[in-house]
Design brief:
single chain, 235 residues, alpha/beta, Rossmann fold, 2 domains, six-stranded mixed beta sheet, two-stranded antiparallel sheet, 8 helices
C-alpha cells in the first residue's frame, strides 16, 4: 500500500497551516490506529516465547500404552509395534502457551514398578497414569500400582488418568475407569481427572501424532493444570 504524505497547505502570508485533511479528527484516529498496530507487531516479533520447564511422569501397567501416549504428547507418530519399556525414556515436548515438558516414560512391569518412586521427585508437576481401558481384568492391579505411586509422594500437584485404547471393543468409559481406580473418591493430588485417549488407531492408520483421538483435550488439561500450579508456586 502506497504511503500518503500529509503536508501543510501554504497561506497567503507565506506561512503554512494544516490542510483540511489534517484537521479532520478521523485522520488523526486512523494515524493512531496505524501506529498502535505497528507497535503491537513489533512487540510480538521482538519478544520470543520464554519456555518454562515442567517435569511430568508417565506411568501405568505394562501394555497400557504409555509409550504410545508419550509419543503422541511429544508430537512423534507412535509405532505400531515396539518393545516394552524396560527402564525409562526421557522425552521433550512443548505444550502451548510456553511449557517445555521433561516427560519421563517409565516401564510398567512388576519388576520396574518398585523403582517408580525414585522418579516421582519433589519437582514433578503432573503424573500421567495410563490405563488400558479395554483390559478390565487388570483394573484392580492398576489401582494398586497407582495407589503405591501416590503413597510414595508427599504432595502431587496434579494427576491425570488416561483411559487409553478407547477404539477397542468393550473399552471402559472414563466414569468406569474413575470408579475402578478410586479417582471419584478423591486422589492424592490437588487436581485430578480422567480423560479418554487412543493413540493406537493413529499408529495403525499411519497418521501423525496430532490425529490421536482425545489428544487435544489432554494437552489442554495439562496446560491448564501447569498454569494453576505455576500461579501457586509464584505466590
Amino acid at each position: 500500500m502506497a504511503e500518503v504524505t500529509l503536508s501543510a497547505a501554504p497561506t497567503g502570508d507565506g506561512q503554512e497551516r494544516p490542510s483540511r485533511l489534517m484537521r479532520n479528527p478521523r485522520t488523526w484516529l486512523a494515524i493512531v490506529q496505524i501506529m498502535l498496530h505497528k507497535l503491537c507487531c513489533w512487540w510480538t516479533l521482538a519478544k520470543p516465547v520464554e519456555w518454562r520447564t515442567a517435569r511430568v511422569a508417565c506411568l501405568g501397567l505394562d501394555g497400557a500404552g504409555k509409550t504410545s501416549v508419550a509419543s503422541c504428547v511429544e508430537g512423534v507418530k507412535p509405532s505400531v509395534q515396539h518393545e516394552p519399556t524396560s527402564g525409562f525414556n526421557c522425552r521433550n515436548a512443548r505444550v502451548a502457551p510456553h511449557w517445555q515438558l521433561d516427560l519421563w516414560d517409565l516401564g510398567g512391569s512388576a519388576l520396574i514398578r518398585q523403582y517408580w518412586s525414585r522418579y516421582l521427585t519433589a519437582d514433578t508437576k503432573i503424573l500421567l497414569f495410563v490405563v488400558d481401558a479395554a483390559d478390565r481384568a487388570r483394573f484392580a492391579e492398576a489401582r494398586a500400582a497407582l495407589d503405591g505411586a501416590l503413597a510414595a509422594t508427599d504432595e502431587l500437584p496434579a494427576l491425570l488418568v488416561l483411559a487409553n485404547k478407547q477404539d477397542l471393543p468393550g473399552a471402559a468409559t472414563t466414569a468406569e475407569v474413575s470408579d475402578a481406580l478410586g479417582i471419584a473418591a478423591g486422589a492424592s493430588a490437588t487436581r485430578a481427572a480422567v480423560l479418554p485417549i487412543s493413540c493406537a488407531r493413529a499408529a495403525a492408520a499411519g497418521a501423525d501424532a496430532q490425529s490421536a483421538s482425545g489428544l487435544s483435550d489432554v494437552l489442554a488439561w495439562v496446560s491448564s493444570a501447569l498454569q494453576s500450579i505455576s500461579h501457586v508456586d509464584d505466590e
